[in-house]
Design a protein that fits this description.
single chain, 182 residues, 2 domains, 74% helix, 7 helices, 0% strand
């Protein structure tokens, strides 16, 4: 299902690019003016309705027939322990980078831009929530010895939090980092 959502979002953003040729726009202008305007947020009600129906249908098909993808992936002979190790190493490398670049340097930049290091803006709050989820992941794996499905579920929750932090907050919540509303 997560794969279906990711593919739908990438297709919708690709349609925005093809429709509006927005490659030269800055990220704020892109999100504020063009993100999902060729599909889900189109001025044409028909285009928007068809986009939502197609998205839900595609996600349903991915959910319903995901076992086929699982079967194809299992053909690669990857063991669950190997996937667990890849996930751990990815998070172990990304966590300090996110801590330094996302939280610490972001706070320094916020102080320069807005005069405060932390303002509990939705983007800042969700970044901190994401940081806590991955801190819990590392703690549970290293100190508690969690492995397998239990720790994989924490990694998936962390991934969903990342996606919501970078897309959902901008489009759904208002604050200093909001670009979805005109």
């Amino acid at each position: 299902m997560t794969l279906g959502i990711l593919v739908v979002l990438l297709i919708a953003m690709g349609l925005d690019y093809l429709t509006y040729k927005v490659a030269i726009k800055g990220p704020e202008g892109l999100i504020r003016s063009y993100l999902f305007k060729a599909s889900f947020l189109s001025d044409s009600t028909g285009v928007a309705v068809v986009s939502w129906i197609a998205a839900f249908a595609f996600i349903f098909v991915c959910w319903r027939y995901g076992y086929l993808l699982k079967k194809a992936i299992s053909g690669f002979s990857l063991k669950a322990e190997t996937l667990d190790e890849i996930t751990y190493k990815s998070i172990a490398i990304g966590f300090p980078i996110f801590t330094l670049g996302g939280l610490i340097f972001g706070a320094i930049w916020a102080d320069q831009a807005w005069g405060v290091y932390w303002s509990w803006d939705p983007k800042e709050t969700w970044s901190l929530i994401t940081w806590f989820i991955y801190a819990f992941y590392l703690h549970a794996r290293l100190l508690r010895g969690w492995r397998g499905k239990k720790i994989a579920m924490v990694a998936v929750v962390g991934f969903v939090a990342v996606i919501f932090t970078y897309l959902g907050v901008n489009l759904l919540l208002s604050g200093l980092h909001s670009y979805g509303k005109e």
